[in-house]
Amino acid sequence: MASTLTTNFRLTLAVGLSAFLAACNSSETVNENPQLRFVAEQSDLSGYCELPDLEILVHTPEGEYHSTLYTNNSGFLSLTDIPQQHLATVAPHLTNHNKGEIGFVSEQQEALIKLSANGGDYFIGTYVENYPGELGNCYDYPKLTVQVENPDNLLTDPQIRDGYIELAQDVPGIVVYEQYDDNTGMFSASGYISRDQLSQDEVLVLSDIPLVTSEPFNLTLEAELSFIEQRPFSNGYQFSQKFADFLQAGAHQLSTFTAPLQSHLAAVQFEDDDGQNITHVKNWLNTDQDVNVPDLSTPEFQLIDVSPDAITYQLDGLEPELVFAGIHFTATNGNGEAASYYQYVWLQSGEGAVVLPKVVSDLTDIELNYVVVEVIDTEGGGLSTYRPNLMELNKFNPENRYTQNLRALYFNKRL
């Protein structure tokens, strides 16, 4: 059905994440007709609509305008129409600029082919209000609703609301906790029931779910101060955090989760070097293993030059497989209106220079505000689940989509 968008939607670029991550670890053949799928997603994530005739701008590797493409009736765009190494960008006037912000997505064509090889949806984008075009077919995400009896006042994830637990389409099950301590993040026992063991509108008695006593594992920190976040992880999904706090150097303990849940840990350390704010992030995925968190502030990260057209930087001690770079600036458009803009580019290798596409060509009085560069070293395959301020990816398959040991740097400097 075709309809006009009247609520707050997110303009979303849906591509095949599984193929890119698998490509890090295998020699999969590439789909001969890779496609991107663009959809508008409801802000409450209850469903989405296809975006036909969506305007996509193509730019050369040097950032110059090349051509304009349009999605088909189902919101698909063939990647073979994008020349090698060129950038695909959602037209700025179709993104949210009600508050002076224009956001868009730019990607290297080679990386996009790997992303779309095997299908599957990966969502990045920005929220828009009152999308100006016509929508295609709209779909609701499948949900599972379970009525809950909780005589022992156990805690659950997802949470109980008005006597029910609702599982969105990507939630693989329900985690149950006993005696969770808000101050320490420790809990005495945990249990788990998978989605395939549940049925719509059944009555689930939480006390019937077996709880396993939690055993502590050791966490050793070498840096003076680290922010530690722990979440249970299962079947490609991260549940809500169960521990998040700043910890000083030394030995600490956290609780394990019952099988098949694994413990996803993120260690974040901060560094301020002459106005250059660097966030160091390292991720682990384990069940009950002890973890040693080193001092992450060893690689040198130096900004060499920044302009509206390009960002040049230097790394020493880290060879990233993924680079996200962007700038925030204010400018005056062709109508004489002053506005703020943010644009970023996703690259599949870190060569020290990022060229930004000239998506809005009539801007004048450009004043740069800050620059962001993020580099990710996957150490054998995977993608970060912690991307500060840009996006958070939380849907993974631990068998082929997640690395046991991931390193990332997030660099932010005011100009």
Q: What's the structural blueprint in terms of helices and strands?
A:
Layout: E1 3-4, E2 8-14, H1 17-23, E3 35-42, E4 47-50, E5 55-59, E6 65-70, E7 76-78, E8 87-90, E9 106-108, H2 109-116, E10 123-129, E11 134-135, E12 138-140, E13 144-149, E14 155-157, E15 164-167, E16 173-178, E17 189-194, E18 203-205, E19 212-213, E20 216-234, E21 237-238, E22 243-255, E23 262-273, E24 276-286, E25 291-293, E26 300-306, E27 310-316, E28 322-332, E29 338-347, E30 353-355, E31 364-377, E32 405-414
Parallel strand pairs: 13-18, 20-25
Antiparallel strand pairs: 1-11, 2-3, 2-10, 3-4, 3-7, 4-12, 5-6, 5-8, 8-9, 13-15, 14-16, 16-17, 17-19, 20-21, 20-22, 20-23, 23-24, 24-32, 26-27, 27-30, 28-29, 28-31, 31-32
Helix pairs in contact: 1-2
Describe the structure.
- The chain has about 425 residues and is mainly beta.
- It has three domains: about 140 residues, no CATH class; about 70 residues, no CATH class; about 200 residues, no CATH class.
- It is about 5% helix and about 50% strand.
- Strands 20, 21, 22, 23, 24, 25, 28, 29, 31 and 32 form a ten-stranded mixed sheet that branches.
- The longest helix has 8 residues.
- The N terminus is likely disordered.
- End-to-end separation: 47 Å
- Total number of strands: 32
Helix content estimate = under 10%
Largest sheet: 10 strands, mixed
What does the overall shape look like?
globular
Mean pLDDT: 75
Beta-strand percentage? over 45%
For the CA atoms, what is the radius of gyration? 23 Å
Poorly predicted runs: 1-30, 120-129, 380-403
Count of alpha and pi helical runs: 2
Tally of individual domains: 3
Helix-strand category: mainly beta
